[in-house]
Write a structure and sequence with these properties.
single chain, 319 residues, alpha/beta, 3-stranded antiparallel sheet, 10 helices, 11 strands, elongated
Length: 319
């Protein structure tokens, strides 16, 4: 819990001061009663005393004062609420290394399956677009609520070429910058980047991450594959050789950190699906400040009413 006006909490010092003043008053009252009648005859003069009931209404009023001061400080808490309108760009690598089978059945098909599950998890009101990239970036779908269109574009991908991660991020940012609401304000946005290898061409991905930070568009990265991943390539002489295609988690982590997102690594299909599920729940909600002033003020009013009613019932007076 936090407070919009925390300095007003200094007013809580009034509560112990009030208690101290009440105890002083009670001490003087007892002294006056003792002077009025000797202990031996006190029972005949005042046979009945309210006892503990005398203090209950005052305790209620003290609690009400504390709650009212807290209410004046405007208490607030952070809650996760469903995103009513947002845009997410899936940026998916389909370079030649995505045909490696270290992630079953192969990297590209595992990524496609996980992306489809991600589309199932994200609320229907959230727009999802798609940028696919190898040695060049292709904006296949602008953010849309048409999930079938995004799935169809994912299905058409076949692994080939190199890796231009920076170009893909630039294309995604350009698309998200154009997503505005009815008032012309840019809607909340994020990028989910999946790649399995080191960049081979194009602009620096970390420069694009810095641009994303300026635009307040976090990039969530998923580094796919294992260090043992290989693909078969044909040499100019016609021979087939095995070439290692390890992922580049260090760069992916750097992209996420710079932009304000989070990085994930996945060396099998189950881990990839788990990463997408976490992203689905994370990106479908946003943190929102909720003020609790009314609740504290209502509690203070309830204590005042309770104290007043008890005082009227027991003593036929409010205080």
């Amino acid at each position: 819990m936090s407070f919009a006006e925390p300095l007003l909490l200094l007013g809580l010092v009034l509560v112990p001061l009030s208690v101290f003043a009440y105890l002083r008053h009670e001490s003087r009252r007892r002294a006056a009663a003792a002077a009025f009648a000797a202990p031996a005859v006190r029972q005949s003069v005042a046979p009945r005393t309210p006892g503990w009931r005398r203090h209950v209404p005052l305790v209620a009023f003290a609690g009400a004062l504390a709650l009212l001061i807290v209410a004046l400080a405007k208490p607030q808490t952070t809650v996760a609420v469903d995103v009513e309108r947002a845009s997410i760009m899936l940026v998916t690598d389909y370079s030649g290394s995505m045909q490696a089978t270290d992630v079953a059945p192969d990297r590209l098909r595992a990524a496609r399956a996980a992306a489809n599950r991600f589309l199932d998890k994200v609320p229907p009101s959230v727009r999802v677009g798609l940028v696919a990239f190898n040695h060049q970036a292709r904006s296949l779908r602008s953010p849309t609520t048409d999930r079938d269109a995004v799935r169809a574009s994912l299905e058409a991908l076949a692994p080939s070429g190199g890796t231009a991660t920076g170009e893909a991020l630039a294309a995604a940012l350009t698309s998200l910058e154009s997503q505005v609401d009815e008032r012309g304000a840019r809607v909340p946005s994020a990028i989910v980047l999946l790649s399995d290898g080191k960049q081979t061409s194009g602009r620096s991905p970390t420069d694009m991450a810095a641009r994303a930070k300026d635009l307040q568009i976090p990039i969530y990265t998923v580094s796919l594959g294992t260090a043992a991943g290989t693909i078969d390539v044909e040499t100019p002489s016609g021979a087939t050789v095995s070439r290692p295609v390890p992922p580049d988690p260090a760069t992916m982590d750097q992209i996420a950190t710079i932009s304000g997102g989070q990085s994930f690594t996945a060396d099998d299909a189950d881990q990839l699906s788990a990463a997408y599920e976490k992203l689905g729940s994370r990106l479908s909600k946003r943190n929102e400040q909720r003020e609790l002033t009314a609740g504290f003020a209502g509690g203070a009013l309830g204590l005042v009413l309770a104290g007043g009613l008890l005082s009227l019932y027991w003593f036929r007076r409010l205080v």
